Records
---
Amino acid sequence: MKLFLDTAIYEEVEQGVTWGIVDGVTTNPTLIAKAGMDHEEQVKRICQIVGNDSAEVVSEKMDDMIVEGRRLAAWHKNVIVKVPLTPEGLGAGKVLAGEGTRINVTLCFSVNQALLAAAIGAYIVSPFAGRLDDINEDGMRVVADIVSAYRQQEIKTKVLAASIRNPMHVTQAALAGADIGTMPFAVLKMLFDHPLTEAGQKKFLEDYRKTQEAKPVATKR
Ligand code: E4P
């Protein structure tokens, strides 16, 4: 499972890329607003350091979404255009996909919706696990069911587990067979954490220092 960052903050992406663990980025209008930066400028900067950044259309009508999607796709070859799982969004996605633009269908909450995304030739479908958990449904079960339906139907659309809220969600998404998991920077950092790693590394360094201190001082002949 590839690890994506769900952020519009360049510095977070840069850190994840420097660690060698981040393959892509997803953004949405809420994250853009939170980052408080110019959308185009931010997406272009991010695209210079990762192979893909999903940028979402905010128009409401299909024709406007098509125009906006073309504009987003022209920003950089690494832009994936995100459209909502609505009739207008899918109609626009179909046209854009037909033009060769990679489409990420967002706001997916069911297997049936994921089948619609596949039908328009989406490159990615994004089921929002955390938001399903929020309404007392099993979000990761839906992710697993979409993966299973796609495998049975030999559908190539990638399943991106979105709305990941904690490290356990990451493990569950991987075990469910998701192709990609997108998460906030705080969750990505938590993936490193294990008390035995921390304690083991501390002890290794202490023992190394002891051997250095115990070394006999070289004497001149
Ligand atoms: C994914 O593309 C979405 O931006 C994101 O995962 C939504 O997460 P949230 O439900 O925590 O806002």
---
Amino acid sequence: MKKTINILVSLLILAGLSSCNNSDSTSNKGALNSNAAERVYVAPGELDEFYAFVSGGFSGQLAVYGLPSGRLFKVIPVFSQDAEKAYGYNEETKPMLNTSYGFIPWDDSHHPDISQTNGVVDGRYVYINANNTPRIAKIDLTTFETTEIIEVPNSAGNHSSSFVTENTEYVVAGTRFSVPVPQRDMSIKEYKGNFKGALSFIKVNPEDGGMEIKFQVLMPGFNYDLSHPGRGKSHGWFFFTTYNTEEANTLMEVNSSQNDKDFIAAINWKMIEEYVNNGGGTMMPTNYAHNVYDEKTHSATSTMIKEVLVVNPVDVPGAVFFLPTPKSPHGCDVDPSGEYIVGNGKLSANLTVHSFTKMLDAIENEKFAGDAYGIPILNFEDVLAGVVEQPGLGPLHTEFDGKGNAYTTFFISSEVVKWKIGTWEVIDRKPTYYSVGHLMIPGGNSAKPFGKYVLAMNKITKDRYLSTGPEVTQSAQLYDITGEKMELLLDFPTIGEPHYAAGIPAEIVMKNSKKIYSLEENEHPYAAKTDADTKVVRNGKEVHIYMTMIRSHFSPDNIEGVKVGDKVYFHVTNLEQDYDVPHGVSMIGANTSELLIMPGQTETFIWYPKRVGVWPFYCTDFCSALHQEMQGYVRVSPASSNLELSWSLGED
Ligand code: K7E
Ligand code: CUA
């Protein structure tokens, strides 16, 4: 017995010693370090410190996570239908997915960006791009719902999007693929010199975040990959990386990698805004959709717009310049002061940093190295602020901590590298698992980053998670960046492919979060605001059911007189006025999703009765102890039946 105690004591001493050792060393073991778990642990009942809005890539959606926990709170449907929430399935939100190509149920979403006031994220809206069928969406952060989508004409592969200026004057969208503008039947081989790259400046209404395309700059036919706004001293400018300045149209992996340097295009949007405000530019016929969701009618409308104002950059001298940048740059990032523009040359050994001040100087002194289609090219040496020498392989994106440091991802060497702005020296590097794309520091695209964490978003996961067949989840990794060295704290899986994310302190968003929709303010044309408003109306073969739901019944819950061949509209209003009490509804055989209806809201689905009988519907969201009692029946008679419509609740 005594011996056992002795062993225990010495084990305890050993354990104590080793934990001392751990806390003494600034361990570079990353997540293996003893207290990483503590630093991401958000205890039951506690709240996360940051929201992270993580793009879904080919899922077309936007996922909402908490940091540091990495817990998933919501997937906000944006460009893809979502049967869980009826987005794109119910009659009210179908118009959100309307385009000039008709109804499109999917897209590829890459870059969320949060609205800003005075260069600081204000938490009002998130904007995000659709790549495939070019669109920009607005998500309202009071409701966490997509409330507006605008199509971008003359564009293809809408990738250098959707970044906002420091007072959300504009959200900007740039085309990745150049195309004939306007579209026409022509030989692909005649690309060079004939295709155009449209950079779209979408004006934002300061009142409601609403979008309107103010003008498009029709640039030479390069690929416009990414962009960021100037800020502080460079406010009024916007910067876009280009690749394929070769203007190749085939075997791009070889043919678009010929030039030693491509460009960062610097656009003085304030100057062009003034130009168009004074009547400059040309109105071009086109066709694009503008879809707006109205919170009072709980319904979206889609309007087709028939013209867009285009600007030839050569017509606005002094507004557009090219900064030579090695070599097929991907990311284009501007530091919090607005002085430094970082070009992440995918195929370059070094990172190139341009100086805004030097750029203005060179422009002032007209020190040009030539021009491309009439747009002046500045000298590389004249605008260079510095070079980060050999930091890694395959640089993609850079963010800033607001304390003078920058963090760049390297896809090929799978790492995040921390370097110092001004001295350009590498301070630290940490591996990612694996092949990191973007990274995100909350407030990263602003004058005021919240430099506590960096979130790395990885393309390849391989052995990091339990196997799930050929498809392995993509993932995010959280690093603590408060110290000199970065520390890996956490891995968590993501929805779709996380290209980019936008982060913000939770308190900024939380205080504006909506709890319910006011039933009084509900202006849906088919709303039933009390049980007395419920009815069933026939109009030829169309039957409209004005239905309500409240814990724990539907009104009406017995309906007769529906016939085979009818088109039955269920217009259902949730009468609840309590936080977090949605009800759901679906009908057997309905060729659409359930509805998930928030308190005070009205939504509609269509049901085609195909067979004679008595058919049930029920609540799909477990809402109360009597949720299983929340159900009803529709009697379906033959098409030839003369049975009149009748409806009831609580009658025998
Ligand atoms: Cu994945 Cu910004 Cu679309 Cu780089 S992009 S990784
Ligand atoms: Cu309402 Cu379940």
